[in-house]
Amino acid sequence: MATKTKAVTTTATPWGAAHRVEKLTLPQRAGEKRFASVVELLVTEQGERLVRFAYSTGGAVRRGPVTLRVRDLERLRAALAEHPGLAEALRPRGRSLDGGQSPIPCGVDERREDQCTVRRAEKRVDGVLGMGH
Asked: Terminus-to-terminus CA distance in the chain, angstroms?
């Protein structure tokens, strides 16, 4: 079961100090190994929101690669219902939490690039850099 933590903690980030607003801990197991993935919503002093992924072993939080199985991702999605700030930050743009459409636009621009325009731009860049393809 995922746990919910509300305590505000200050954390150092590459963007400066940030306060932890939400923390979601997802316990996991691989054979006899027990560990947890941690997802935190941080807010910098300038108001920018950051999402940090980490893992913990024996209570010590570690950064580095965080690997989640698909079934763990499903548990993470379910646990986000208790963490509205994290849920909103991790939600794909243009999608509501229930998978419906949101008023926020999203999508990929699938128009083809004009290949002649791209080639001309490449030639200009190559000329400036003194390079050729």
From this structure: 55
